[in-house]
Write a structure and sequence with these properties.
3-stranded antiparallel beta sheet; 9-stranded antiparallel beta sheet; 317 residues; 8 helices; disordered N terminus; Cathepsin B, Chain A; alpha+beta
């Protein structure tokens, strides 16, 4: 298996069913990758294009109906856009077979399949059927931290906000010179090579007031820039998670329950609203790879065709 997991909590028949579903979904992604049918987020006249029917709330996979998917939808949308905007992040995600398969499924608009693969992998890691149960309705209500184990294979260094703050390891260069720059924000995961992390995920979990710095520089002079934030809106009636992402030289708010899914909103405007930051994703933009303007000629031809059912996100002037 391409991941480490505890199996003792899953009955043999259920484990076989899980492995079968996992194998089927990853095989589907492999076939799509071999066919080079990546056709979701396209580069069109210098702008990225996103379909109108992008990742939306809920979904159904087979007989399973997914509910309360706002955290998962926002996280997957943020990672997927990030991988398409930043070639170094796409390359990073390709190093994990499950995350790579999820990205390919999203590329091909197989949203419920991508969600199902993600939560099946989480359950396999946990060794229990916590999310993808036999029930017809699958409730994915939860927290950001519930989804972070799927990044374990890419994690080179971590900082636990409550524990490591009391006793950080001063001998760890990655911690001291890079990860420590983010520790005031929350629990930190550095993804990618230990000596050159490409993506920093910070589980802020409402620990800070306001918004984090948009750019953080480590002791090596490398710049890590916010690509997306996951924001919570907490009211007396409900809790809801949305994505706030940088794209096409602007900032966009994605809400899986709204139509349209994206709307332009400036950073100074969103900070005046009642959103709370739960996750911050910082991309290493000092790696020499191009960002916001990938090489269109090197992309699959299906990425380069404009589509009538797609939306070119244009920031407000």
């Amino acid at each position: 298996m391409p991941f480490h997991m505890r199996l003792e909590g899953i009955p043999i028949d259920a484990l076989y069913d899980y492995k079968e579903k996992y194998a089927l979904l990853t095989a589907t992604a492999t076939g799509l990758q071999n066919d080079q049918r990546h056709n979701l987020i396209q580069e069109h006249h210098g702008r990225f294009v996103i379909p109108y029917n992008y990742i939306s709330f809920g979904g159904q996979h087979g007989t399973h109906i997914l509910r309360n998917t706002c955290v998962l939808d926002s996280l997957l949308a943020g990672c997927h856009i990030c991988a398409n905007v930043h070639p170094n992040i796409r390359e990073l995600f390709m190093q994990d077979s499950t995350i790579n398969a999820v990205m390919i499924l999203l590329d091909n608009r197989m949203y419920t399949e991508a969600k199902s693969l993600w939560i099946i992998n989480l359950d396999l890691r946990e060794g229990c059927r916590r999310l993808y149960k036999d029930d017809n309705f699958i409730d994915i209500r939860g927290y950001i931290k519930d989804h972070l184990p799927n990044f374990l294979n890419l994690t080179s260094a971590k900082f636990h906000y409550d524990d490591d703050r009391r006793s950080p390891n001063p001998e760890d260069d990655v911690y001291h010179k890079t990860v420590s720059k983010f520790e005031a924000l929350g629990e930190v995961r550095a993804l990618g090579p230990r000596t050159n992390p490409q993506l920093i995920l910070v589980d802020v979990d409402a620990r800070i007031n306001g918004f984090p710095a948009l750019v953080i520089t480590d002791d090596y002079g490398r710049e890590f820039k916010v690509q997306f934030l996951l924001l919570g809106m907490i009211t007396a009636d409900s809790n809801h998670m949305v994505l706030y992402t940088s794209l096409n030289e602007g900032w966009w708010l994605y809400d899986d329950m709204k139509n349209p899914l994206f709307r332009a909103i400036a950073m100074e405007d969103i900070q005046t609203q009642d959103y709370v930051v739960y996750l911050a994703a910082y991309v290493n933009v000092s790696t020499g790879s191009k960002t916001e303007r990938p090489d269109v000629n090197s992309a699959p031809s299906s990425w380069r065709r404009g589509r009538e059912d797609s939306l070119v996100l244009q920031p407000r002037k």
